[in-house]
Each structure stands twice: as structure tokens, then as C-alpha cells.
Amino acid sequence: MLLSLAVASGFADQRMRAYPDHVFQKYIPGILDHSYGAPAIYRVLMPYGLTYLANSTGWTLPALWLATRLLAFLLAYLAIDRYLRTWFSSGEALTGVAVVAATIPLTFTNSWAHPDAIPELAFFALGCYAAVNRRDVLFAVTLAVASLNRETSGLLLLVYLVAQPWCRQTAYKLAVFGTIWSAVYMGLRWSIGWQPYEVWQLGKNLEFLKLLPPAYDPYYRSYAWFGLLLFGPMYLLASLVPPGTPPVVRRLLWVVPPFAVVCVLFSSIIESRIFTPVYPLVLPGLMFTLLRADTSKSAV
Asked: How many domains would you assign to the chain?
């Protein structure tokens, strides 16, 4: 079933894009020669990884792009499934993955697919799993690799903070993890070179909320609202978790507001893919609310 959901998502992702070839015709070459501009040039994992595989295997870049995109969906759904099994049965966890697969097309608002978006979902789900289950080595490795993919991986530090008991040992571990993330963040900018870009996006985002020009179709005009339409109902339902729900499920919701603030201030909200990491934060609470799961399954 996970493979079926991954193929369905991959098919929709490919068919909904106006310019599906842009990523391997312009984006990846632009990342490699640093001409595409910041912050994209610092999101090196997929562009450099795909280029290495193409040179090593003899596969064409378009073929590798389609194959790894499908693999990214599958790995993301596997990570979400394993994460949800912390509290739920296999069937219930599959229901959670199906919720993601059914709604994730609302994040396909770009005219071409960004290669970091679906891997970000996989890394964030895996990081949440590691934090909640106190798998520190796995968390450190996930954080380091995810930092090569996208800088918002730093918000996994907040996930770790709310998932762990608040004590001196947790503070020490967070210092180590923060150092890992900072080393990757600064190392990329030192090795590639600093390129200035327009960081502050609040003004543009407030304009986007007024809807895009009438020349576009109604859905296109409303792209700025897709993130709220997608995760607003999920967040509200997740906040209604029944008594006896593991405390960490409630605390994961604490990460959503600061994450949303970062997105609104520093990202373009018409690209609703930026909200994809919210899935692992709200899914456990959403499922406890809707399924009234057996809270004795796990003490985590």
C-alpha cells in the first residue's frame, strides 16, 4: 500500500507541474555552477547527489530525477509509517500515511518540483521519530544530512526540545546537535561563498493574502491560503486530543506556531511546499483525536 501511495503521489506530482523538466534542465545545473542564487545554492544534497549518480551509473539526469523523486515519496511514507507506529497499530499508521498522500497535492503549487521538498518530509518524519523514541545517534545523523538538504532542518532542534525531559543532559545534547547544524549551515556558505538574497518576505506575503491577479484561475489566485487550508483544520483537530494522550503528542504541536512564523517571515507562502514538515507535528494528535487510539499502547 505504501508503494501504491508513493506511485500515486509521484504521478500527481509529475502531471500537475507546468514545467516538469525545469529541475534537471535549469535548476540542477544552476546549483552546480552557483548561478541559480541563494538560498537554493546551499541546498546541495539532491542536486549534487543526482549529478554524482548520473556520472557513476550512466543513467540520464531526467531518468534519475523521476526514479529518485518516486523513491523520496516512498521513503517519506515509510518514515511516517514507522513514526506513527510509536503509538498506533500498523493499520492505523497506514491511515495516517493515506491522509498525507491524499492532501500533499496541495503543496504542488510550484510550476516545477523542488528536489528538496519531499526529502524534507522524509527527514522531518525520521527526525521526529528519533526524537520521540530517544534515538540520539539516529537524530544526529538525520539532522546532519537534512541540513545539506534545507536549512529549515534546524527546527528539528525544537522537536527534540519538546520531545525530551527538560534537564541538564538534554541541554548538553541540544548543544551538540545545534553545533552539528550550525557547522553544516556555515560550512556550506563558507565553501560555496556568501550570496545575498531577499530574506525578509513578510511584506510580499501580506500582499499574496489579498489573492493573485484575476488573470489566474481561482485556485492559483488562492495559493497563499493553501498552507492554512491544509494544516489549519489538522492543527485544530490535533489540539483536541482526548485525555490520556501521551504528553509528547501535545508538545509536538508547540513547534507548529514558531515554524509557521518562520515561514511567513522568511519564505514565500504561495509555495505551500514550505509547510510540508508540519505533517509529522500534527499527525499524531490528529489521529488520537479521530481514532481515539489506545493510549496504553505506549508510554512515550
From this structure: 1
Cα(29)–Cα(47) distance, integer angstroms: 8
CA 46 to chain centre: 14
Q: Which of 135, 103, 140 is nearest to 278 (CA)?
A: 103
Q: Cα–Cα distance between 122 and 68 in angstroms, integer? A: 13
C-alpha torsion sign, points 74, 149, 80, 78: positive
Domain extent at residue 82? 2-291
CA–chain centroid gap for 167, Å, is: 28
Structural domain includes residue 296: no
Angle between helices 90-103 and 2-15 (to 10 degrees): 0
> Percentage of the chain with pLDDT > 90?
92
Helix (H, G, I), strand (E, B) or coil at 166: coil
48 falls within a domain = yes
- Residues 6 or more apart whose CB falls under 8 angstroms from that of 82 comprise 93, 129
Please report whether residue 164 resides in a domain: yes
Sequence-separated (6 or more) residues with CB below 8 Å from residue 159 = 127, 128, 131, 252, 255, 281
* pLDDT tens string 36-85: 999 999 999 999 999 999 999 999 999 999 999 999 999 999 999 999 99
Q: Are 90 and 80 a contacting pair, CB within 8 Å?
A: no
Left (φ > 0), alpha (ψ -120 to 50) or beta: where does 285 sit?
alpha
The single-letter code of the amino acid at 160 is Y
* Residue 298, in any domain of the structure: no
Contact between 122 and 110 (Cβ < 8 Å): no
Angle, in degrees to the nearest 10, between helices 278-291 and 61-84 = 40
The C-alpha atoms of residue 173 and residue 90 are separated, in whole angstroms, by 31
Q: Which three cell numbers stand for residue 274?
A: 514550505
